[in-house]
Amino acid sequence: MSATVIHRHRLATRLWHWVNAVAIVILIGSGLGISNAHPRLYWGRFGANFDHAWAQLPRFPAWLTIPANYNLAISRRWHLFFALVLAFSLLAFMIVSLLNRHIQRDLRVRRRDIGAAHLAADVRAHLAFRFHDPEAPGAYNALQKLSYVAVIFVVLPLVILTGLALSPGMNAAWPWLLDLFGGRQSARSLHFIAMVAIAAFTVVHLVLVILAGWRNELRSMLTGRWRVPE
Amino acid sequence: MIAPLLRRRTLIAGGAGLMLTGCDRVIQQPTVRTILFKGEDMHRGLQRALSNRDALAPEFRPDQMSPRFRTNGTRDPGTADYAALRAGRFADWRLTVDGLVARPLRLSLADLGAFPQRAQITRHDCVEGWSAIGKWQGPRLGDVLKAAGMRDSARYVVFRCADLYGGAPYYESIDLIDAFHPQTILAWAMNDRFLDVGHGAPLRLRVERQLGYKHAKYLMRVTAVDSLAGIGKGRGGYWEDNVDYDWWAGI
User: Fold this and answer.
1) Does an H or E element contain B68, and which?
2) Residue A174 maps to which CATH number?
3) How far off is chain A from B26, nearest CA to CA, in Å?
4) What spatial distance separates the first Cα and last Cα of chain A, rounded to whole Å?
5) B58-243 domain in CATH 3.90.420.10?
6) CA Rg, chain B, in Å?
7) Are B222 and B144 in contact (CB under 8 A)?
8) Residues of chain B with CATH 3.90.420.10
9) What stretches in chain B show pLDDT beneath 50?
10) In CA terms, which of B19, B144, B241, B245 is 20 to 30 Å from A94?
11) Is B147 in contact with B124 (CB distance < 8 Å)?
12) What is the rounded distance in angstroms from the CA atom of residue B224 to the CA atom of residue B244?
């Protein structure tokens, strides 16, 4: 059984993947800790206890939050430091991936990717646990490509910009951010919704990594080397 | 061969969980703590590089105000001294302006009303996450400091309050960029009425580009200093000294 091994992920992609993964885990944990300080979400410019909340969030348990025991100041220290890591590593990844043509080659959504017939075929392939096109095994399949594009170019920028809109200092520096999101409390709600989307993506991503063969997938994200499935 | 595989599997399975508890352990390390706490300076530096030092916080129309503006922190200082001032409708209250100034001042509410006034409808953001929009009026802090002849050696302005935390007056501080910002006022009026006790009567600070805990209520004394070293435990405020809140609360 001679397996074909290809070099699948560039160093820049692998580096960003792991920096981003660490940042996401710490940001969600510390963010849930911050949420516990005032677990109500509002739409609009203002929102406090006497105002209508569209969502009353649960109290997130100690095993999910950073730190485990409620400490708003320390949750904020983790959150605001890793917010910088998340934002600047994403920016660097985007620039490098434009220069090394990762975006143009691997992430560009082509018309045939989003045709109804092609998407339906891709859903059926996923349900049959077939994740790779035998013609081009190293390429991302359509659903994979669309979800990566959505996370990298929509959800992560959204979580970063809504986070910035929560800063009273940034509100003075970039007042247009507030107008974009419809006020600070709307930005706070969207920030939470974007986090839920990222958490959902992460769960699906991990499940698919396991189904696709976690040892091969994990090695490819560590060393770049990926064995083409027979 | 089995051992490393098992170890790797355990690492992956418990990866996220380990990281969460790991975070609590590593932050005990002074070096990690120092690096993490540098985030505050990085955000301040980036934001100040991105914006004009006089960039204004958003202001709102009267119809955009919160119908009810909740109180927070101290609702009533409750001391005998404060009760006496309150009973006299703050006629005997004076704001002391001292420290690195040529002419220390003791200002009554009438004196503060004689300065040029600024009224602004702004959003108050609590560090906990809620926001409320209200109208504030009072003299600019910068005008009051100029009237006292603040010296060039001053670097920070320290606020001391009538309410007690841990048996000592609440205190806060800001730097001169925020002290002389056009929206930084000593507010004696809220929503077109005298400030009520819950919101800091008779006078509170408004420093609109920072979070709520910087907006010291029940002001008694404004002091120009060249260093925060001698104030409290040296980090510039009650919450900063006691529970690691950021001194620069612009985010």
Assistant:
1) none
2) 1.20.950.20
3) 11
4) 9
5) yes
6) 22
7) yes
8) 58-243
9) 1-6, 9, 13
10) B19
11) no
12) 23
Q: Is the pLDDT of residue A36 over 90?
A: yes
Cα gap B168→A33, rounded to integer Å: 29
In chain B, residues 211-230 whose CB comes closer than 8 Å to chain A:
211
């940034």: which residue's tokens? Answer: A170
Alpha carbons B24 and B218: distance in angstroms, whole number: 36
CA atoms within 13 A on the CB side of A96: 13
- Judged against a pLDDT cut of 70, whether residue A2 lies above it is answered with no
Count of the separate structural domains present in chain A: 1
Instruction: Identify all chain A residues contacting B39, using CB atoms and an 8 Å cutoff.
Output: 77, 80-81, 83-84
- CB contact burial B186-218 (16+ within 10 A = b; e otherwise): bbbbbbeeebebbbbbbbbbbbbbbbbbbbbbb
Whether the predicted pLDDT of A102 surpasses 60: yes
Distance between CA B77 and CA B173 in Å, rounded? 20
Instruction: Determine whether the interchain pair A77/B39 forms a contact, defined as Cβ–Cβ distance below 8 Å.
Output: yes
Give the Cα separation of A107 and A104 in Å (integer): 6
Per DSSP, A104 falls in state: I
pLDDT digits (tens, 9 = 90+) for B135-187: 999 999 999 999 999 999 999 999 999 999 999 999 999 999 999 999 999 99
Chain A: residue whose CA lies nearest to B240: A73
The dihedrals phi and psi of A218, each to the nearest 5 degrees, come to -65, -45
Q: A–B: how many Cβ contacts below 8 A?
A: 153
Structure tokens at A13: 């992609």
Distance from CA of B102 to the nearest CA of A (A): 32
Paired strand residues for B221: B96, B160
Q: What is the pLDDT of residues A183-230, one digit of tens each?
A: 999 999 999 999 999 999 999 999 999 999 999 999 999 999 999 987
For residues A46-56, one letter each, b for 16 or more C-beta atoms within 10 angstroms of the residue's C-beta and e for the rest, the string is bbbeebebeee
Contact present, B70 and B198 (Cβ < 8 Å) = no
Backbone angles phi, psi at A204, to 5 degrees: -60, -40
Let me know if A173 is exposed, middle or buried by CB neighbors in 10 A (0-12, 13-18, 19+): buried
The answer to whether the beta carbons of residues B108 and B186 sit under 8 Å apart is no
Burial of B67 (0-12, 13-18, 19+ CB in 10 A): exposed
Q: Which domain holds residue A186?
A: 5-227
**ipTM score of the complex?**
0.92
- Identify each DSSP E strand in chain B by its residue range: 95-99, 105-107, 117-125, 131-139, 156-165, 168-175, 185-187, 189-190, 193-194, 204-206, 219-225
Can you tell me the distance from the alpha carbon of B200 to that of B205, in angstroms, rounded to the nearest whole number? 9
Q: What pLDDT is stored for residue A47 in this prediction?
A: 98
